[in-house]
Structure prediction request, 106 residues.
Amino acid sequence: MSGLQTLCNGNMNNFMNILKTILILILASLPLIGAAQIDIQLSFNKEAKEATLLLLNTSDDIYRLSPKSIDQYEPGTGCIYTFSYRDKNDKVIYKRSRFIYDETIR
Prediction:
């Protein structure tokens, strides 16, 4: 299995649904995003089967994103979200990963 398939237990549709949900939430708050000065970029690499959602904070304010809670996922699924916080010189100042899974598959 490739890296992304391993992370998502081979369920690419579930991973894409999660990204779509996050994107819909972000797009639903476009007026706030414009005022908050957050740039959004979504890309998908078909060869590597990797989806990237880039949120660039261009202000001095701190924003918190929270993925869905674990009880909203179907059994047999799991993905990793990684948030990297970078300074204006693109240096990573903080990195946080969250593994979302269903405990019933163990």
The first helix runs from residue 3 to 7. Strands lie at 38-45, 50-57, 78-86, 92-101. The helical segments are 3-7, 12-28, 30-36.
